[in-house]
Structure formats: C-alpha cells, structure tokens
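Dear H.,

Thanks for agreeing to be a second pair of eyes. The structure we're designing against is below in token form, covering all 597 positions.
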C-alpha cells in the first residue's frame, strides 16, 4: 500500500523525515552530487523565489512512512514549463510501476499548472556520445521509460555539446509535450534551455557556451527524435482528474454524535441542522476527504480544563438524563470558594451565562467534538495542509473551568495544545463573538499566539472580555491580541483588520495555524450585526491560506441556516484555491466541477 503526496516544507516531523530520506537517496544514487545542493533542499521548498524556480517535491511512501520513490520538479511560470530535476526510486520499491505512477502525477500537475511541457535531461544512448556499452543500456532503459509517455529528445541543436574534451555522456534535452501532437515552439524551448543553463549550471557554463547552445534552437517548432523504443506511447495523453488527489483534499472530520445534543427550547439556535446545511454545500465541491474520528484519552481535555470542572460536567449530564436540562441561575460572585452541594445548584459555579443548558447528552456530544478536533489536528501532523473539524457543540467560549455560549469543552484550545507539542502555533478566532476561552486558557503562555476579531464587548457577547488592551500576562504578555470592531462591519473593513491579524501571525513565526471559524459574521445572522457576504468569506479564506501554513479549521458559530452552508463553502473554496488551485497544480479538474455558484 503506497501513497503519493507532495511535501511543501520541513516544518512538521513527517515532512522532515521524508526530506531526510530523499536527501539520503540523492547522496546514495547520484555519486559526486554537490552535498550543498542536497542540504539546500528544504530551503528550495520553503523559499522558491530565492532559487529562481518554484520547487515541488513528491514522495511515494509505504504505510511505515518509508520513502520508496520521489520526484523533484521545478516550475517556471513566466516561460511556462516544468523541469523534472530528479525522479528516482529506492531499492525494493517496485521500480517502474511506482516510477510510472509518480511521473503521471507530475505530468498531470504540470498540465494543470498551464505548462506547455515537462523538460528534463537524459544521458545519451548514442555510441558517439557514450562509449560505455553498459552505461548505454542503462540510458536506453530510461529513455524507453519516458518514451512510453511520449517524451523524446530534442534533435538538431547544440544542447549535447560537451563542456570540455573530458566531458563524456553529455545529456539530451528531453521534452514531454503532455499529450500534444505538435512539438513546442522554438522560442519556448530556447527560453527554457537558457533558464536551465543560467540558473542550474550558471557556475559551470560560460556565457559564450550558453549563447552557442540557445542560439542553435532554429527549427520551429523544435524537432523531436522519432520513437525508437515504442511504436505508440501508451500514456501520452494526460487524463483529467475528476477530483484532487487525496493529499490535496481538505481532511474533513464530522462529529458523528452531534445529533444526540438537540436543545429544543424555542430560540435556541445551536441546532443539528447547522451541520446538515454545511455538508449539503461543501460535499459537492469534491475538495474534501472525510476521515472518521478517533477516540482520544481524557488527558487531552485535562491539559486545558480543570479536572473538577470536567468531572462535574460528566456527573451532572449523566444525572439529568433524557428529556431534562439544567440551566444555571445562581452565580457565586461573593463566595466562590464553596461550590453548592447539589449538582443542579452548582451549574452557576461553572457557567458564564444563563442560556447554555446541561442536558443528558451535552457531555457526550462535547466529548466527541474534542475527538474530532484532535483527529483533524493529527491529520495536519501527518502531512495534510488543510483540515476541517465540522463539530457541534462549539467550544471557543469554554474556559479552563467554565462553560457558556453553547460551549462546554474548548475544541480549538485542546487541538492547539496538542499541536503546540510539535510546532509553533497561532489561534486565529474569526467568530463574531470574542474567543474568551482561548484567551483565558493561554493568558500566561507565550508559546501559543491567540488572536480574535469580534464585535466589541460593549454590545456583543460575552461582554466582559475581548477589549483591545487585554494582551496577556507573565510569559504570555503580548501573545494575546484582540481586534474588537464596531457594530456595523462590511467585507472591506473586515479584511483591513484581518490583514493586520495575519501579519501578526507571520511575525510570530507561526508553523501551524488553527482557525476558530465562526460563520456568524455573515449577513443577517441572528446572533450578529455584521454584513459579510459569500464573496467576502471566499476572500477571507484565500487570505488565510495565502500564509502557506498547515491549517486546521474548527467550526464555531454561525446560525442563519439560509446562508450558513454557502458561506462555509465559499470560505473553504477560497482557502483551497489559494493552496492548490490555479498556480498550485489543480486547475484542470475544476472545469467540470465549479467550486462556487
């Protein structure tokens, strides 16, 4: 069982391990390769502009995460070609089968990037250019492999000109036209050859050599060598994908127990229909891959919540049973050192409002929401760039020892706590209401940055927190930022503030971003006053994704059923298109499956 995935950087452990294995394979399989180039691979992935090309690294892994094959390619967007730097498999990998599947992925992504071809070098099979018969056989086998996809050497140029008299086996320049029957224009291949010689071999090729080679591309279109090893290429055409590959879909984890928590009192807007409405809109996009929630031990909850509080929720919900609910109505402001003996009376000891009930299933549903958030967090740790925990009840109002605002356990904080064991984390709360739970939980910690854009507490729940001067304390001083906004906000104003928050995320050196997504910022939400539209949500998603960070999104508020699903779809398609869409290797399949209506 193998999987192909793209490795974007070396931030997370699975990606670091994959890159290290690729570096070892490069050193082993290519004797004499400059070790500086091998060591510089992570930098090429993280900082493509510095290297003149945008680097793509694909790996084929088995279930033990052993890299069995890899491909390193470069994209030159201005000239419009993809350069295949390496495609190699390890010993015992299954050889050609894995290599062929991997190369098909490279070809498809190249086509969807808008490239007119994939270019690469192959050592020659001509006795005049390679004197060693055993080497010629190896070179011929490689050329035969690529001929099966329609790729052939360019002929009639000086590209094979040796740099010196001692230079044996000067390489062919090979072009894969990606299924096009017409060879590419001479000006395109000439420009690509110049880019390769200047940027890849600039320290070896003198200017006069580069000029000699590039000026030799005179045939228009260029001529490709006739097929030598195959009568008809079996896989010349590139099949258009119906949906993105698994590694480029958003990992979706849905709370499969959310239906058991259904408060039927009139006016209680946190209802099960929220999940169904969102799913109805996001499922047809085909950019999600649903994965089942795993069960996690209580220690994850106890890492952010008070043990007495957690045990109280479990006991009181079990005692209440079906058909009943406890609403807090007595609050121990003056004497909170002695909680009431009766569980029902004790609700106010742990609650911040009077409208969040404790019913027979609140604990179970909230506990499962935590499992979902942690499952999605681990999907990110396993290499997914985007993950979405679609859960209810929400969690961002739950503090270390208090529930409220429909929230019982702080899913966002628990997931961030787990992720912070592996990387530098920031929480960006985009709900209409202040993320008081994360603020309180991480108030004295500097390792997790907490940001919240919300309605000013002068008029918006929870009223007692979310002011701009609340900056954290002790080691957390400066690691909490609030952006309280006015009562009427439209998209342009919101994006001005979102830009400020995203700059703070970058300044923090964030390696994993956790987004507490509230859709109650949308127009006509019953709990909000802002005026964001579907187009605004799409642009907000794009801006968040432009950080190019592994990102976990956890569902919080949003209660207008008529627009809830459309706004969710817009946010995630904006994120996805920025991460994987045009310019990122996934333009083609969207022609048949438009993401937004």
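And this is the sequence the design step returned. I haven't edited it by hand at all.
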């Amino acid at each position: 069982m193998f999987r192909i995935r793209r490795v974007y950087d070396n931030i997370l452990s699975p990606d670091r391990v994959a890159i290290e294995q690729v570096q070892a394979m490069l050193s082993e399989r290519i004797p004499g390769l400059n070790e500086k180039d091998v060591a510089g691979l992570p930098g090429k992935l993280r900082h493509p502009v510095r290297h003149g090309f945008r680097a793509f690294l694909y790996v084929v892994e088995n279930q033990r995460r052993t890299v069995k094959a890899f491909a390193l390619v470069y994209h030159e967007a201005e000239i419009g070609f993809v350069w295949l730097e390496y495609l190699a498999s390890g010993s015992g990998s299954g050889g050609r089968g894995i290599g062929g599947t991997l190369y098909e992925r490279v070809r498809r992504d190249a086509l969807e990037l808008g490239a007119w071809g994939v270019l690469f070098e192959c050592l020659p099979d001509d006795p005049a250019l390679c004197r060693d018969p055993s080497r010629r056989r190896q070179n011929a086998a490689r050329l035969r492999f690529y001929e099966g996809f329609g790729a052939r050497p360019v002929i009639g140029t000086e590209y094979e000109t040796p740099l010196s008299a001692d230079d044996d086996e000067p390489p062919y320049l090979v072009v894969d036209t990606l299924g096009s029957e017409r060879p590419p224009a001479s000006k395109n291949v000439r420009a690509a050859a110049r880019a390769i010689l200047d940027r890849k071999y600039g320290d070896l090729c003198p200017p006069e050599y580069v000029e000699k080679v590039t000026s030799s591309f005179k045939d228009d279109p260029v001529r490709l060598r006739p097929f030598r090893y195959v009568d008809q290429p079996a896989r010349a055409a590139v099949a258009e994908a119906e949906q993105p590959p698994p590694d480029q879909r958003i990992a979706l984890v849905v709370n499969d127990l959310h239906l058991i928590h259904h408060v039927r009192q009139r006016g209680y807007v946190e209802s099960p229909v929220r999940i169904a409405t969102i799913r109805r809109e996001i499922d047809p996009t085909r950019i999600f891959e649903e994965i089942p929630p795993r069960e996690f031990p209580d220690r994850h909850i106890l890492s952010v919540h008070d043990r007495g509080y957690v045990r109280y929720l479990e006991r009181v919900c079990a005692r209440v049973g079906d058909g009943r609910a406890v609403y807090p109505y007595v609050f121990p402001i003056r004497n909170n050192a002695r909680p009431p003996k009766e569980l029902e009376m004790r609700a106010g000891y742990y609650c911040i409002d009077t409208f969040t009930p404790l019913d027979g299933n609140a604990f179970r549903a909230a506990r499962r929401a935590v499992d979902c958030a942690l499952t999605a967090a681990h999907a990110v740790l396993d290499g997914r760039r985007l993950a979405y925990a679609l859960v209810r009840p929400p969690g961002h109002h739950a503090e270390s020892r208090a529930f409220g605002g429909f929230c019982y356990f702080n899913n966002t904080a628990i997931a961030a706590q787990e992720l912070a064991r592996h990387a530098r984390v920031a929480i960006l709360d985009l709900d209409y209401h202040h993320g008081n739970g994360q603020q309180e939980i991480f108030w004295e910690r500097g390792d997790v940055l907490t940001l919240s854009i919300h309605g000013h507490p002068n008029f918006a729940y929870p009223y007692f927190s979310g002011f701009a001067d609340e900056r954290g304390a002790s080691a957390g001083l400066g690691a909490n930022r609030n952006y309280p906004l006015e009562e009427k906000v439209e998209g342009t104003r919101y994006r001005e503030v979102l830009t400020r928050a995203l700059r703070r995320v970058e300044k923090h050196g964030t390696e994993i971003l956790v987004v507490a997504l509230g859709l109650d910022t949308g127009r006509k939400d019953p709990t909000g006053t802002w005026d964001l539209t579907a187009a605004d949500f799409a642009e907000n998603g794009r801006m968040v994704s432009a950080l190019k960070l592994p990102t976990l999104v956890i569902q919080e508020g949003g209660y207008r059923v008529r627009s809830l699903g459309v706004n969710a779809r817009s946010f995630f398609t904006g994120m996805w298109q920025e991460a994987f869409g045009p310019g990122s290797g996934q333009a083609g399949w969207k022609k048949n499956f438009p993401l937004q209506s």
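Two observations from my side: Confidence is low (pLDDT under 50) at residues 583-597. The chain has two domains: 2-224, 252-305+361-591.

Warmly,
E.
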